[in-house]
Write a structure and sequence with these properties.
Elements lengths: L2 E13 L5 E13 L2 E10 L4 H4 L6 H4 L5 H12 L1 H22 L20
Antiparallel strand pairs: 1-2, 2-3
């Protein structure tokens, strides 16, 4: 019953007026437990600009390469802080619990009710 968390990067927003300085990244946070995977997402914003970053500046063209996704994830987690990271992971885990609870619901139509009206444009 252990839970594994996987962080992935979706969209990246950069400032084309500042040498494509990365302003924020969309984080997808996945939780997997007992074969069920659910997710949440969050936009992590980065303060500053190219000048304030100094020698630590990394070109956008390098950062969008697959091998640098882990660096973006580290930056995002650092910007969020440990408390917010834990919270987002708990939200993804709670989505598994909601999914599992939904599986226990039963849905059926009663044949005793009259037919539903036909909606124009639906087949």
């Amino acid at each position: 019953m252990s839970v594994t968390y996987t962080w992935r990067i979706g969209d990246i927003e950069s400032d084309e007026n500042d040498d494509n300085f990365i302003r924020n990244v969309e984080c997808h946070i996945y939780a997997t437990k007992d074969g069920v995977t659910q997710k949440t997402q969050y936009i992590s914003c980065f303060d500053g600009n190219k000048t304030s970053t100094g020698s630590d500046f990394r070109p956008y063209s390098d950062m969008i390469k697959a091998e640098n996704e882990s660096t973006l994830i580290t930056w995002a987690k650092d910007a969020l802080g440990a408390t917010q990271v834990a919270h987002l992971e708990s939200v993804a885990l709670e989505n598994i619990n909601i999914y599992n609870d939904t599986l226990k619901l039963k849905t059926e139509s009663s044949s005793n009710f009259p037919s539903l009206p036909k909606v124009t444009g639906e087949s």
